[in-house]
Amino acid sequence: MPLAPAYREFYRAIARTIPKKNIILDPLRRVAIGVDASFYRLVPQIIVDVEQEKEVQAVLREARRLRLPVTFRAAGTSLSGQSITDSILVRLGRGWDRCQISGDAATIRLQPGIIGGYANRQLAVFDRKIGPDPASIDSAKIGGILANNASGMCCGVEQNSYQTLASIRLILADGTIVDTGDAKSVADFRASHAGLLTGLTHLRDTVLTDPALTDKIRRKFKIKNTTGYSLNALVDYHDPIDIMAHLMIGSEGTLAFIADATFTTVIEHRYKATALILFTSMEDACRAIPILRSQPVAAAELMDRASLASVQDQPGMPPYLKGLDQSVTALLVETRTNDADQLTAQVEAITASLAAFQTVMPISFTSVPAEFQALWKIRKGLFPAVGAVRQTGTTVIIEDVAFPTERLASAALELQDLFATYRYHEAIIFGHAFEGNLHFVFTQDFSSPAEVARYRDFMAEVVEMVVTTYDGSLKAEHGTGRNMAPFVEKEWGPTAYALMKRIKALFDPANLLNPGVILNEDAEAHIHHLKPLPATHEIADTCIECGFCEPVCPSRDLSFTPRQRIAGRREISRRLAAGAGGLAFRRFTARYQYPGIDTCAADGLCATRCPVGIDTGKMVKALRQEAHGPLATKIAATVGNHFAPVSRTIAHVLDGVDLVHRSVGTTFMEQASSLARKATFNRLPLWNREMPTGSGKITPESAGVTGDLRVVYFPSCASRAMGGPARHETERHPLPTVTASLLHKAGYRIIHPHGLDGLCCGQAFESKGFTVEADRRSAELSAALLAASDNGAVPILCDTSPCLQRMRATLDRRLRLFEPIEFVLEFLRDRLSFKQKEATIAIHPTCSTRKMGLEKKLLELAQACATRVIWPEDIHCCGFAGDRGFTFPELNKSALNGLAEQVSSCEAGYSTSKTCEVGLSLHAGIPYRSILALVDEVSQPKWK
């Protein structure tokens, strides 16, 4: 559908200020990018990625002139529909990631694009953190954390975004910038916006002259409350600048754009102990809450029996969760301190305080990190447990309400009765007990009017119960959004609601900032624009579009994220089911190829963050397989059947190209390669200055090595074909040679599997969607390694982590397979003497290293080799993705944005995959090598 005239004019106007690549008009991308974590859907007319304040001002100026609504988006993890629009969606692009910690770490200034978990990692060295700790903290950005007044499991109402805000920088609807932490900015604002500030003062006076309203505001914010605007700002602060700053918290982008903010940090305790306490009833669990509040308890998470049952069959869950009575209710209790001895005393005091209660099992705290993390896994697994088992086409809904804590038990039981009445038999209840905050999760089908009516009637009774019966909060921490906007007046009453409307009018008189969110006169807004979730692919159908996967996706700033890939496929499936066809539909579908398929690294890291464990890369590989015709399949089989000569040919070609490089120079090679690629419409792979050479002939010679220690060494096909150095690399030995040197140094005799040149784990075939050939290659390798290792008696080393991971998934289970980090730490460390080199080095855990849980082992090994190790933890996948770094080099470049600055002080970097090391070297400005090369450099034998 073509753009309306006003939007066309808006586009032309902002394109004079904002790069066109950051203005998205493509219909498929607008659908895919426009989704958020809620169960609502609106498709934006235009998406604008802003990278600096002047671009935000330009958007607001032109939107105001043309009277077009604007919605701001941070990470899009919002659950209540507050970050979607059918008008202009403004996303945070690159350039909003500055982080500044004060000298004593008492405050931290953050731009809105910073992910909450990143801020905490920067503060960890000071034993500090930001106050809010939402479950989405490793995905949610500071802009959204502030705009939704995020809290979480441990911060309560005392350390949420509102309470820990020190200052804030805003861009108002009229384009004015004000920084409440800058005296001159404040002085200028007082002069230019005296009317607005006077209006806030009048609102404060209105509240303070109404004792009943003042009391209501204070009372309602003693528990968690994000329904409506933060009216507590009118009673907590006198200066209208402070009032304005705190009204922005929880305003969901309806009052201004948050350009940055300064938080007061809080203590991150070093020592923790946790217990899962099983009470015989909901009433007992709730009676224990006020007792625990008087104890040194940092968190108390309530879980009903249905919650425990939803996760009891998952791996790693305690066996005692099965067979519990239906009335059993759990409290997950944690105590914290910076004094190890004090921790014991706190555990004893908490346990003694509950002596009068009959519990299903004796109360037992653990301070062992692996054990208390397993207990927290119960709590954190509840939401995905429901989402993962829902029927295709249904959505998972998580609501959060809060009650006065003294009435929590009766409210929870009444809520359970409502579930039964409305046939939500899978529903579970859990929450933050100290704040009276309950989350309830259930699945809902919106495909028929009857199902929509069931949801509407259920929510009507929930609203009545929360507001009328218990005087609670309809939204405790997930924000009002569209979901509770129709009920804000019911919760707060007409007087307070009128105040909120006056607040909105002061800041946004034209009602252009996120209209329909927080304040909405449509009594049925919560059942409009419901998101369809058609079946699209069996791997992805359980996706709840939460966006937790996005921070680790290498293509997130280039094309699509996993969430967007799935949303795009769903839109194609929806249109197909609706009867779409013809040229227009084929064109729409064709738009998916580059962002959806071509630029997916298929690394599987998304599954490590996904609440329901979806590996979108597997879906993309399946789509690649579906796209292959008979000719492509035949070519793949031919390559597999002649893998040895193909591999040798690649090595010879690389050596030949290197000779040309030596003759004509790097500049000429880069220019010529770029021209050739453009001439072939980007079909020709792009040469780069880090292009390796071949490895030469590989032999298992073990001269001088005596003893019974043996290892089967399988150099990956990448190591064999391209394991040699780049032209300018100072380390000239090929990887197989380096590995052999290290193994011999440790006293190992090397065995190579028979027919080594023709062996492959199948990774190269699988990534391109040739799964039949990939499995055939795996079967051949498995047989060869069984023979070489005496049916698994001899350990097997593969020098490339991605290949090793696939080998573990597909080869015979008798084989003892090790990648470089594991093998060194388990077999070589005790046979070698390490002498740390005086150097600063970098490490990069590959995707497979992370998925195998070895990233900290890599750090441990690197620290044994060098005096200082830098690990850029926010660089996840390098985006090289096998050979995709040659065919889609922009993916590698985008994934490694910012790496060079982080490793500029390093002399070299180390990893466990040759192709990854090529891409890392290219964009880091330092050479990256195998970690085996570093170990070989700094070690000497001590077994002789």
UniProtKB/TrEMBL annotation:
Enzyme class (EC, first level): oxidoreductase
FAD-binding PCMH-type domain ranges (all copies): 40-268
Keyword flag Transcription regulation: no
UniProt keywords, alphabetically: FAD, Flavoprotein, Iron, Iron-sulfur, Metal-binding, Oxidoreductase, Transit peptide
4Fe-4S ferredoxin-type domain location: 533-563
Protein's UniProt keywords contain Repeat: no
Pfam families in alphabetical order: FAD-oxidase_C (PF02913), FAD_binding_4 (PF01565), Fer4_8 (PF13183)
Enzyme Commission (EC) number: 1.1.2.4
Cofactor annotation: FAD
Record-stated family: Belongs to the FAD-binding oxidoreductase/transferase type 4 family.
Name of the protein: D-lactate dehydrogenase (cytochrome)
Species name: Desulfofustis limnaeus
